[in-house]
Amino acid sequence: MSTDEAALTLGHRFHQALTARDWDGIRALLHPDATWTLPGDNTVSGTADGADAMVDRARLIASYGVDFALRHVLVSRENVALSLHNTARRADAVLDEHLATVCTLRDGRIARIETYLSDVPGMNAFFV
């Protein structure tokens, strides 16, 4: 399998595990020392250090009822990005954001995730 095919497969596996709430499946895709950085100033913002912290963050985001609609899996020569449309609704807030989850790969696993958002103020209002 070529590097870009492996990255594409990894991107799909990550999204499938996230939507299935398969926390062990996500953990298996991460390096133990991986990091995940999200913009904003809310309960899910900042940098999660380590696979366990990253899984805890994914669980927290999912606990808000977020639908992680995959638009595209994009590959570079060595890395992968997921283009997502995340939506959720509570009685007092609506989440409707487009994002890119950019994954830096090392040895066939995710070493770093940086998430780019279309609506940071909306994210801040939703994840209180």
TrEMBL record:
SUPFAM superfamilies the record matches: NTF2-like
InterPro entries hit by this protein: NTF2-like_dom_sf, SnoaL-like
Domain SnoaL-like, residue spans: 13-113
Superkingdom in the source lineage: Bacteria
Sections of the chain in a coiled coil: none
Protein name: Nuclear transport factor 2 family protein
Biological source species: Streptomyces ramulosus
